[in-house]
Amino acid sequence: MRKFCDLNNYHFSRMLFLMGIAASAFLNGCDSENISESAIPFEEQLQEKLISAASGEVITIPEGVHNISRSLSLNVSGVTIKGEGMDKSILSYKNQVQGAEGLLVNADNFVIEDLAIEDTTGDAIKINNSENVTIRRVRTEWTGGPLTTNGAYGIYPVQSRNILIDGAVAIGASDAGIYVGQSTNIIVRNSRAEYNVAGIEIENSTFADVYNNIATNNTGGILIFDLPNLPVQGGRNTRVFKNKVYTNNVENFAPEGNIVGSVPAGTGIMVLANDSIEVFENELSQNQTANILVVSYLINNIPINDPLFDPYPEAIYIHANTFIGGGMEPDSVPLASLKQATGEPVPDIVWDGDKATTEDGQALLDPFEILCISNNSSENFVNLDAGNNFQTPSFDISPHQCELPALSKVEFASAD
């Protein structure tokens, strides 16, 4: 009888790979000279390394375009995946036949850097229930341009803690290029998001710093959302600062039914139903719906069946931003009507005006407790009066000319 070690190792490894079995478990103890790794396709080598990885191991992705046909996964903590550069080491999923993601990670102390993931069927990189995650100089892209058939998310950590996204590039996602959801302690910096529906999105998360990024040619540049019916709610304490957010006028190409499908093309920064948000020292230009939108969840006209969900934004502080142009072609019926009525561009800062009230219609919060505005390059403002069916928009900024305490810097050890 022939032994496993006597079999052709390439064909045997391929059989085990297709069965989802680690080849090392069967080939352990075989004479190493009988194993010709060079004969094994790169995809199989990489999956085997991910399966058999030990904590502290660095898995290298050599320069070149490497064709991957199935989702890869990692469940071992303390692993680094490292390439030669985001334009040199490329994992191409153009011919993907199996799996919902490119790379799925459920592991702590994970680092991925200096590589690209292209043309996945679903999300490019999904990281779930992980702590201390570093994504550095990684590019995710759908190379065919902004299409509804593209995967939803480029970089996608969810229900995780201590997340650093630094120097990333995200292009072509049909939901969000860089997305962090239901997580806490988040830093997104020095990154670029382009030709996504949402460039950068922080959703149902707490304590996030989003800074020194470029968001351009998306439907919406930077979104800070809080949504109902999710396991983690109560999004708050996000700082959005020193970003360049310009010409985010790409037609919305989200699949039907997706919540970001309601984002108007031409949105710079949008805060929806989130609390304690500080937006400062950003440069926003030529976003043709509005440079900044602050709205309640009710703006979507979607029924809320989550009794714990608060649909209204509160404690939003917008200050020291620079506005250049924009508001000329609003992709929103109320804003288009406003522009037509005034003959002027949509103001740089738009609040829908919808707020929580008592049973007799009295506001629960004063205007300055909802939105404070100060020291921007221009302070063109409108309250759309959405709660009264947009009947009486107001351009009076005086109730909102105030300051709020600055939010604290987000810090954690792996972000140093």
Tell me the major beta sheet.
19 strands, parallel
Q: Strand pairing plus helix content: what structural class?
A: mainly beta
Helix % is under 10%
CATH topology of the largest domain: Pectate Lyase C-like
Rg calc: 24 Å
Global geometry: elongated
Mean pLDDT comes to 91
Note the topology:
Blueprint: H1 9-19, H2 23-27, H3 42-52, E1 58-60, E2 64-67, E3 70-74, E4 80-82, E5 89-92, E6 98-105, E7 110-118, E8 123-128, E9 131-141, E10 153-158, E11 161-166, E12 169-171, E13 176-181, E14 184-189, E15 192-194, E16 198-203, E17 206-211, E18 214-216, E19 220-225, E20 236-241, E21 244-246, E22 267-272, E23 275-280, E24 283-285, E25 290-295, E26 314-319, E27 322-324, H4 333-342, E28 349-351, H5 367-370, E29 371-374, E30 381-383
Parallel strand pairs: 1-4, 2-5, 3-6, 4-7, 5-7, 6-8, 7-9, 8-10, 9-11, 9-12, 10-13, 11-14, 12-15, 13-16, 14-17, 15-18, 16-19, 17-20, 18-21, 19-22, 20-23, 21-24, 22-25, 23-26, 24-27, 25-28, 26-29, 28-30
Written overview of the protein:
The chain is mostly beta strands and 416 residues long. The protein is 10% helix and 37% strand. It has two domains: 1-40, no CATH class; 122-415, Pectate Lyase C-like (3 Solenoid). It has five helices and 30 strands. It has a 19-stranded parallel sheet that branches. The chain has an eleven-stranded parallel sheet with strand order 3-6-8-10-13-16-19-22-25-28-30. The radius of gyration is 24 Å and the shape is elongated. 48% of the residues are buried.
